Amino acid sequence: MGIILGKITVETPKYKSVEKKGDIEIREYEPAVVAEVSYDPKSMKSGRDGGFMILARYIGAIGTPYNKKGSEPGEKIAMTAPVITQEHGGAEKISMTAPVITKDGEGDNENKSMVTMQFVLPASYTLETAPTPTDDRVKLKEFPSKTYGVITFSGTVNPKLEEQQVQKLKTSLESDGYKIMGDHLLARYNPPWTPWFLKTNEVMIPVEKNL
Fold first, then answer.
1. Is 172 helix (H, G, I), strand (E, B) or coil?
2. Which of 15, 144, 180, 210 has the most crowded Cβ, counting Cβ within 10 A?
3. pTM (two decimals)
């Protein structure tokens, strides 16, 4: 992913920092185009991260790009960070740009295990200029500007660590007068082989300031 020993050297989503307090920050993200795939993690060998290879093939990170531009052959698209993953009910959709982001959402028990993974495309692309996926499972979406409360932390993410960070962030946001506007996203910036103490992760929650 263009990240060496934990140092992030690839393009990341553009945002304006509104407020910062320790490891928690309020960010206004700019609009972006994302490529996403939704799937049942139980049907994938890699479980929750099963969509990674599908999206990697779309951008051409592995072999010939699974995309096209009109009648022209596919073009390679630069990898960004983070990768975004969202757990959600069958009717809910994800939002955001490039780390890996994971979001827990509402939904009935039958559909709650569905996952949506996203790659945020480089800022040079629009929905009109981004290459069209040749794999029907990959969809392109325009992500609107949005404000998030974000907490940054290190380590290899597991459900317990993730939930700890979610609760810490929610408590801080609510005490500072912010209204929670949706479920959280989990953004992971590093490949799995990165040492745990060099990994950068973020939990992101959409917010509005209470008047």
1. helix
2. 15
3. 0.82
